[in-house]
Design brief:
about 200 residues; alpha/beta; Rossmann fold; 10 strands; about 30% helix
């Protein structure tokens, strides 16, 4: 059984929800969980800084006495790193860049039996279909999870965008009418997550 903690994004702005998310993600692994942090959704030159920030954010969020052991994912060693990790956290960022990297792997095979945390773009990637704030349209994910996903729902995300604010009701309706109509829609406000076991 693989357990997915599918988050809507915005954890850095929601410290209480971040605590809940990271503690739930790691609670089954004792006091020294091995955590693989994956930043494939951002340009390579940003990985080191994102990794440092991720470590700080998770350490600040987890319960006292829990001291995670961290590793940063690289494409050349990703499969082995996933095997060695207790939990994998894949950050958000650019939908298309992330899917470029993730399509290199048989994720259903290498994630089998693992605990996987996702956020925003990586939640999109796991879904069958999603509506993206960046491109403001529906797209297809990798179909790992039989869901539709709408990240940052009803948030101020994109308020400063030249296209104007997002019409969330329209986005939801577009996603509802897109692709497989039988799939459930998870439209989550920032910081919130759903746990899906497959």
């Amino acid at each position: 059984m693989t357990k997915y903690f599918v988050n809507s994004g915005g954890l850095s702005n929601k410290p209480e929800l971040a605590k809940k998310f990271y503690n739930e993600l790691l609670k089954e692994f004792g006091t020294k969980p091995k955590v693989l942090l994956c930043y494939f959704a951002v340009p390579r030159e940003d990985w080191d800084e994102k990794y440092k920030q991720g470590i700080e954010r998770i350490r600040a969020a987890v319960t006292n006495g829990v001291e995670p052991i961290f590793d940063i994912a690289f494409p050349d060693t990703f499969e082995k790193q996933v095997v060695d990790a207790d939990a994998v956290y894949i950050s958000g960022g650019d939908d298309l860049l992330l899917q470029y990297w993730l399509r290199q792997f048989d994720l259903q095979k290498i994630f089998q039996g693992k605990t996987i945390g996702t956020s925003s773009a990586s939640s999109h990637a796991m879904a069958k279909h999603f509506w993206t704030c960046d491109w403001r349209k529906c797209m297809d994910g990798l179909g790992i999870l039989p869901i539709k996903f709408l990240a940052h729902y009803k948030s101020a995300y994109g308020q400063d965008d030249l296209r104007g604010p997002i019409d969330w009701d329209k986005a939801y309706a577009e996603l509802s009418n897109y692709g497989d109509a039988s799939l459930p829609i998870h439209a989550l406000k920032e910081g919130y997550f759903v746990v899906i076991e497959v």
